[in-house]
């Protein structure tokens, strides 16, 4: 067991299901990602879910996955969080974390 490389960059797409829209979920996601140095984007989908893409240090992205999967914004009811297209990165594709419309 080695020491984790805090510089290991990862990318993934996520979709959060449940009662998650209309509760500042996208704003809270953006604020938490920005504070953690994660780049990418988030938006409300027409299907009533929250979708997005995160890129950053694996340790920070893992913390956000936990938040997206089980905690979320106050008042939300998360059913599940699906992750897709997970891979390692050499460099970030985004310069910041944005809310898309």
UniProtKB/TrEMBL annotation:
Enzyme Commission number: 3.6.1.7
InterPro entries documented for this protein: Acylphosphatase, Acylphosphatase-like_dom, Acylphosphatase-like_dom_sf
Start and end residues of each Acylphosphatase-like domain: 11-101
Major enzyme class: hydrolase
GO molecular function: acylphosphatase activity
Catalysed conversion reaction: an acyl phosphate + H2O = a carboxylate + phosphate + H(+)
Pfam families named among the record's database cross-references: Acylphosphatase
Keyword entries, A-Z: Hydrolase
Family the entry assigns: Belongs to the acylphosphatase family.
Protein name: acylphosphatase
Organism field: Drosophila hydei (Fruit fly)
Organism ancestry: Eukaryota, Metazoa, Ecdysozoa, Arthropoda, Hexapoda
Gene name of the record: LOC111603930
């Amino acid at each position: 067991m080695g020491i984790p490389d805090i510089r290991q960059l990862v990318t993934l797409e996520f979709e959060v299901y449940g009662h998650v829209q209309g509760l500042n979920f996208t704003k809270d996601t953006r604020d938490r990602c920005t504070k953690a140095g994660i780049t990418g984007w988030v938006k409300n989908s027409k299907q009533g879910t929250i979708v997005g893409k995160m890129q950053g240090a694996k340790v920070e992205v893992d913390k956000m996955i936990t938040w997206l999967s089980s905690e979320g914004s106050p008042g939300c009811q998360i059913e599940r969080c699906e992750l897709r297209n997970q891979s390692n990165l050499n460099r970030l594709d985004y310069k910041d974390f944005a809310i898309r419309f």
